[in-house]
Each structure stands twice: as structure tokens, then as C-alpha cells.
């Protein structure tokens, strides 16, 4: 299995943008569909979106689909989350996750339309959006 490490978090002003990275090591990154999540203080973890093994397919949650872009660079074993027009309510710990069963299964599990758990999670990176 890969190991995942998120980076790029920090303090951002409202209205600004962020680009988070999730670097994979120790496995074959291109075998994995990847997802991005976040968890705000006192709230449940929220699914943001996912990208397929190849990067050809993406899926976004309605809450962020107009502001988020997920991309990946398989040559550099990294997946990215770009978010624009940030709001204070975007403050959260952001996580990436990986699963070899593909984007469809990843989304089904994440949206609880299928049982099971995603294979690998990163440790998260904190994003704080100031007003």
C-alpha cells in the first residue's frame, strides 16, 4: 500500500485560493483512485471529490463543485486539490485517501451507498480561512 502525506495547508484570507498536495510513497500510485475530504472542528468528515487512476474522470460533491478542482500527476505520485473563493467555513483539516477499487467504488463507499472503508488515508493538513 501507498503512504500518503498532505501538504500546503496554512492560513488563507477569505476570497483567496489554496492548492493542497497529497504525495504518495511506497506503492504504485497509478493503481489508486484518490479522494479529498475535510473535517471542520466539531463536524463530521466531508467528502469533497475524487479522481480516477488515470485522472480522466473526476467527481465533486455539490458543496464544492463550483470551487474545487482535483488533478493528479502520476509521474510525481501526487494528487492536488485546488479551491477558490475560500470562506471561513472552509476552515478544516483536509485529508486525501486512496483506494485501488477505482473512483466508482470510492464514491459509493464515501457516500455510503456501499459498505467498507477506503484503503489508505493521509494524516491531514490544516487550512484556516480568516475573514
Question: Which key features would you list for this structure?
Answer:
mainly beta, seven-stranded mixed sheet, four-stranded antiparallel sheet, globular, 6% helix, single chain
Structure, explained:
It is a single chain. This protein is mainly beta and 131 residues long. Helix content is 6%, strand content 47%. It has one helix and eleven strands, in the order βββββββββαββ. Strands 2, 4, 5, 6, 9, 10 and 11 form a seven-stranded mixed sheet that branches. Strands 1-3-8-7 form a four-stranded antiparallel sheet, with no helix packed on it. Strand 5 (46-51) and strand 6 form a beta hairpin. The longest helix is centred in the last third of the chain and has 8 residues, at 103-110. It is globular, with a radius of gyration of 14 Å. 33% of the residues are buried. The mean pLDDT is 95.
Write the layout of secondary structure elements.
Elements: E1 3-7, E2 10-13, E3 18-25, E4 33-39, E5 46-51, E6 58-60, E7 68-73, E8 78-83, E9 92-99, H1 103-110, E10 120-121, E11 125-130
Parallel strand pairs: 2-11
Antiparallel strand pairs: 1-3, 3-8, 4-5, 4-9, 5-6, 7-8, 9-10, 9-11
Amino acid at each position: 500500500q501507498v503512504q500518503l502525506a498532505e501538504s500546503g495547508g496554512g492560513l488563507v484570507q477569505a476570497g483567496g485560493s489554496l492548492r493542497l498536495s497529497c504525495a504518495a510513497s511506497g506503492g504504485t500510485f497509478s493503481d489508486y483512485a484518490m479522494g479529498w475530504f475535510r473535517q471542520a472542528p466539531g463536524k463530521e468528515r466531508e467528502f469533497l471529490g475524487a479522481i480516477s487512476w488515470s485522472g480522466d474522470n473526476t467527481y465533486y460533491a455539490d458543496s464544492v463543485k463550483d470551487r474545487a478542482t482535483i488533478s493528479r500527476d502520476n509521474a510525481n505520485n501526487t494528487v492536488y486539490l485546488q479551491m477558490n473563493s475560500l470562506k471561513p467555513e472552509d476552515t478544516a483539516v483536509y485529508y486525501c485517501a486512496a483506494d485501488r477499487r477505482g473512483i466508482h467504488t470510492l464514491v459509493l463507499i464515501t457516500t455510503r451507498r456501499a459498505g467498507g472503508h477506503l484503503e489508505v488515508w493521509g494524516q491531514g493538513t490544516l487550512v484556516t480561512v480568516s475573514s
